[in-house]
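Hello,

Our lab assistant flagged a job as stuck in the queue for most of the afternoon. It eventually completed. Since we weren't sure the result was trustworthy after the delay, we are filing this so someone can double-check. Below is the sequence as submitted and the structure that was eventually returned. Let us know if re-running is recommended.
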Amino acid sequence: MSDRTIKEELESGRIVISPLDPADIQPASVDLRLDRKLLVFTNSRRPHIDVKKGLEDLTETVEISDDAPFILHPGEFVLGSTLEHIELPGDLVARLEGKSSLGRIGLVIHSTAGFVDPGWKGHLTLELSNLARLPITLYYGMKIGQISYLRLTTPADRLYGSEGLGSKYQGQTTPTASRFSREFPGPDPAQDAAGTGR
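-- returned structure --
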């Protein structure tokens, strides 16, 4: 979609970007900014990340202060979030992409999570990685990426967040750790009780 169409869709309320500075509308995308909260991975006694288990004990939330940036070290990976709340109608998908100028210093903002489904509502989680050999500063409110829009041939039958679809991140407002463990069936309570002697 062009800047003209993006403006029309924003004015009609079919797509939502809030807050929005009109100066952030580019020829075919809209710049997005980095929110204050980051989810960092902590040292753990776990020997590995088990995709069948939650990550609650592997991450902690830190906040970027107004006085100092967060320092992202070489090889480090953290989760961030867009400052903006994003909403999509049933006939649009969006792509989240990095800023070229940041990519040129080694900052990657997503590994695989650049696709935004129709029906999405919430802040977008950013997968921030430093591929450079020097630390990179992250400031609250800095331009971090851009969102572009594509129109579907027909509206989707089941929007993101629909019952039974298994949407894991609808409505998120802060960086959200992986919920991939929900893809696996839970333990059988009877077997668990037998195994623990209860």
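-- support follow-up --
The delay was a queue issue, not a problem with the job. The result is valid. The longest helix spans residues 3-12. The CA atoms of residues 133 and 170 lie 35 Å apart.
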